[in-house]
């Protein structure tokens, strides 16, 4: 009955988007609340999956699906940007607190969603308005606040297995939680292991060559260029290779044009093969292919390029609280600890290798050693694929964040909460890359006394192995002499470290009574110090990576001091056309 309802003590709660505690669970602020239990029933098992189902974040790049898109934090990092404003303008919190930024590279923004304590979460609140006046400039687009379970008594163990229709990309997840809640203390510990298998373009209907051809008409004759000259199958979006830029312009490699080829061959080039007697190269367009621009074969490696990277996530989380009194007022000391590790294996496919081969290199069929001679011979640009090298990038990221705080009551109507926090992330990345100086040394070649192709300057470049890029294996199959490949390439390694220290305090309560209710306020401060030390591989720092972006050291720190205040005054209650103003 009404008397029984009125006698219940209603706990005041803090709703995302405001520091003021209130007894009402509804808010004037636009907040979307997502229950973890309901999401699990819908088959959404991770924070990334849950947020991708939200209208506010749909259509933006959260994870690294379609490898090759750049995500802040590097491959495997999951970041979310509300309203399309980016991860650096969307604040992601756990219990109202900032986790340490993590990943690889010099641009780490916000929280990597793979570090969230998913087993411990109770719900996710998405604040849909800009909240920079309450949380700072990184909350311009909105706030995502993940709330953990307040108390756990007992244990749970979960096992999840997902097997997609495509047959690859399965996910295995094991998680568990145990806790104890007593009269004046509580403790819980949770952990999880998740293994997301990769799947490649060939596994998906929409990315296969035979079902999604290249749909362009490059010579504007009204015919789509969609037929492979060798297999006759439809072309897919792919790579351009098997040709060279020569003194004759663009020429393609044709294995049928050997030294004995004559004009009976439909691809015979009267100038290249006839006048100058240069075998295997022609300017004649590919027969059966409607143009292909500057004469190329269009193909790719859908069996290697990943749509979803391989991700392994390990998480260990713990929370605890102890209730006592200070001066007759209730107080609670608490801590929150989050430890996680992400291991990512990424393969975005094979890129092109297109170095300049000097005219003096005897393997250059268009150089001074060829039939063109000193007067007409020149540099050639060989365009081939990197299929002979390891295209896998390995990423490992370790994250740790610890908060320790004290909260309680100052009076009958005022409460406080203050905490200090420390977080650290350390990420590493490794991949194989061509080194520009070694490529140049390998292609600066001459013939020795035995007629072998060797590097010109072995004294300056010890161990140098000369590479011939104009063979059929190199041009059409991306296969270079293994010894030359080993010399020109290197497994690079970079390290990214990120530290965050924070101290925050706030108080909220009632100021005075008004006719429609009590006026409330919240006041507080926050201090944060963050530092990054990104050390790319030394050859990246020197700009010595061929065909890849390079970067120098990113090192610096940032300190922020914020003070904030909110005031809420109920002017009118329960009147015509207005329940509350």
Task: Give a brief rundown of this model.
Helices cover 10% and strands 41% of the residues. It has helices at 2-7, 36-41, 47-52, 132-135, 270-275, 373-376, 436-443, 472-477, 482-488, 538-541, and strands at residues 13-14, 21-22, 31-35, 90-94, 121-127, 142-148, 154-162, 171-181, 185-196, 199-200, 239-241, 243-246, 249-253, 281-282, 297-299, 306-308, 310-326, 329-346, 352-353, 356-357, 380-385, 393-409, 415-434, 445-447, 453-455, 489-514, 517-535, 554-568, 573-575, 578-580.
End-to-end Cα distance: 29 Å
Strand content: 35-45%
Strand order in the sheet with the most strands: 7-8-9-17-18-22-23-26-27-28
Mean pLDDT: 85
What's the Cα radius of gyration?
A: 32 Å
Question: How many DSSP-defined strands?
Answer: 30
Molecular shape: elongated
Structural class: mainly beta
Q: Which residues sit in consecutive blocks of at least 5 with pLDDT less than 50? A: 210-214, 288-298
| Helix percent band | under 10%
Number of helices: 10
Question: Which sheet architecture does the biggest sheet show?
Answer: 10 strands, antiparallel
């Amino acid at each position: 009955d009404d008397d029984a309802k009125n006698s219940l003590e209603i706990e005041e709660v803090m709703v995302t988007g405001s520091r003021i505690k209130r007894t009402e669970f509804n808010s004037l602020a636009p907040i979307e609340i997502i229950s973890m239990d309901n999401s699990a029933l819908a088959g959404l098992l991770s924070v990334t999956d849950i947020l991708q189902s939200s209208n506010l974040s749909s259509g933006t790049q959260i994870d690294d699906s379609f490898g090759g898109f750049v995500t802040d934090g590097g491959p495997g990092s999951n970041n979310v940007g509300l309203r399309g404003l980016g991860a650096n303008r969307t604040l992601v919190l756990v219990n109202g607190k900032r986790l340490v930024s993590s990943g690889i590279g010099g641009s780490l923004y916000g929280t990597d969603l793979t570090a969230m304590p998913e087993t411990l979460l109770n719900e996710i609140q998405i604040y849909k308005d800009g909240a920079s006046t309450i949380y700072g400039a990184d909350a311009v687009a909105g706030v995502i606040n993940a709330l953990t379970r307040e108390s756990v008594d007992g244990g749970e163990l979960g096992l999840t297995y997902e097997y997609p229709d495509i047959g690859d990309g399965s996910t295995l997840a094991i998680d568990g939680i145990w806790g104890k809640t007593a009269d004046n203390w509580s403790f819980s510990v949770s952990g999880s292991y998740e293994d997301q298998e990769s799947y490649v373009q060939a596994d998906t209907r929409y990315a296969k060559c035979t079902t999604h051809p290249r749909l362009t008409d490059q010579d504007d004759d009204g015919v789509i260029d969609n037929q492979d000259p060798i297999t006759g199958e439809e072309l897919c979006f792919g790579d351009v290779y098997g040709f060279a830029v020569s003194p004759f312009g663009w020429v393609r490699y044709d294995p049928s044009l050997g030294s004995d080829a004559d004009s009976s061959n439909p691809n015979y080039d009267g100038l290249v093969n006839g006048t100058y007697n240069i075998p295997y190269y022609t300017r004649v367009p590919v027969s059966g292919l409607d143009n292909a621009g500057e004469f190329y074969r269009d193909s790719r490696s859908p069996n290697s390029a990943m749509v979803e990277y391989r991700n392994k996530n390990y998480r260990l989380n713990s929370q605890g609280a102890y209730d006592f009194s200070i001066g007759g007022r209730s107080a609670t000391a608490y801590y929150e600890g989050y430890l996680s590790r992400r291991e990512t294996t990424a393969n975005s496919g094979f890129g092109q290798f297109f170095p300049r081969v000097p005219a003096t290199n005897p393997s250059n069929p268009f150089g001074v050693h060829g039939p063109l001679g000193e007067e007409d011979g020149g540099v050639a640009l060989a365009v081939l694929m990197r299929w002979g090298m390891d295209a896998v990038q390995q990423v490992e990221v370790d994250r740790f964040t610890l908060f320790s705080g004290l909260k309680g009551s100052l009076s009958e109507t005022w409460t406080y909460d203050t905490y200090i926090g420390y977080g650290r992330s350390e990420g590493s990345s490794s991949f194989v890359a061509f080194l520009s100086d070694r490529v140049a040394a390998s292609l600066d070649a001459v013939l020795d006394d035995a007629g072998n192709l060797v590097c010109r300057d072995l004294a300056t470049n010890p161990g140098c192995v000369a590479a011939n890029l104009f063979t059929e294996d190199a041009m059409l199959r991306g296969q270079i002499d293994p010894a030359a490949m080993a010399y020109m390439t290197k497994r690079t390694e970079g390290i990214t470290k990120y530290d965050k220290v924070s101290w925050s305090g706030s108080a909220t309560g009632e100021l005075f009574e008004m006719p429609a209710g009590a006026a409330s306020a919240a006041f507080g401060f926050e201090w944060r110090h963050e530092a990054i030390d990104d050390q790319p591989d030394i050859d990246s720092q020197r700009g010595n990576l061929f065909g890849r972006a390079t970067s120098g050291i990113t090192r610096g720190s940032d300190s922020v001091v914020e003070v904030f205040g909110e005031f809420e005054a109920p002017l009118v209650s329960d009147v015509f056309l207005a329940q509350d103003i």
